[in-house]
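Onboarding guide, step 5: your first structure request.
Type a short instruction followed by the sequence, for example:

Predict the 3D structure of this protein.
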Amino acid sequence: MADKKLVVEKKDPGIAALISVVCMLILGAPAVGYFYIGDVKKGIEYLIAAWLLAGLVFGGYIAITIFTSGLGLCCIPVFVIPLVFDLLIVWDVYLEAKGEPTKLPII
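The system replies with structure tokens like these:
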């Protein structure tokens, strides 16, 4: 029998990061870059995590605004939390596409 070697097509890290940034800005889904590089499991996990985090922050913001009669409007900086998480996902996609050790764990 002939030895079969698994040939993995290396994906361009810049394209992977660009896909993640564009999807982050349009869909709020930076984890789409994982699908491009072939890591579907991690993509699904971080897609759900990013959406849950954004939903919790937005829901909490609305609840605080309602219960404090508008004083929650001063909590606008809390929206930085999902943005930082999304940017970490973009960075992790870039590192994984380069073949370097990633920073985010598989959930």
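Each response can be followed by summary notes, for example: The two ends are 38 Å apart (CA to CA).
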